[in-house]
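S.,

Sequence below, as promised.
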Amino acid sequence: MKLPVISKDQREIAIDCHTHIHHEDVSLIELILHCKNIGLNMLTITDFGETNNFPLYEEDRRKLEAKMGYSSERIKESAIVVYQHSDIPIFTLVRGQEIRTPQGDVLAIAPDQRVPTDRSLSYTLECMRDQGSIIIPPHPFTGIHSGIGRKNLEENLEFWDAIETFNAQNICLFPIGPLNQTQSNNQAEDFAEQYDKAKNANSDAHRQITEIARSHTYSAEQIDFTTLDRFQKTLRLALRDPTDLHEEHSSKYSFLKWAVPLYAQKIRSKFKKPRT
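The prediction came back faster than expected:
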């Protein structure tokens, strides 16, 4: 699969805020090498629910200096910053979470602890804000992926730091009906423009490292790594003021590779008879 090519000013950050990369598939060292190769310098892993790959990557952090000569530090439980020559940050792995609510999914970027799942959208948003999380509604107009829709977007405008206006997995499998999800990206972009909200592009990569940064966001805002509070505040400013978006759809093959097993499992669990 062709890797995305990122051409950017070195002062900018290039960030993919929405990925589902599992430690069992990709180690921290592999992530760093891959992201350096394509020019991505910040990546958020947004596990679903109570799944938490971040501590596993924390264990990998100890191997960096011995194997690659890089130093690193942890910003509490929210990020791992990797340095070259002690003081030059070259890559940041950010902890995130995609939270399910009855009204749809929301992204928490850099929360300081896990956010409860399956609670109301209003409770979830208040919890995320109390933790200082950056809050983004993913694929908000995509019904098959639990988008929260226009009504919930409008009723909670004050919470959104940015709107995910381009999700690389919103592809066209068939030009008619729900199998064509490309229009949902256009709807999200129109909404962001209507309400003057920042736009955000992400890969929504599932397990496949080559899908990382298929879509991503640039910002020229300088990130402060000294404390969690400063990190959250400067990252929020960066995502509220992007300089550019890279928008590229995932391939149909890559989408089907993760989507078919996932939805097959959902269907099986729905019709599975309980044991007696």
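The chain has eight helices and twelve strands.

Coffee later?
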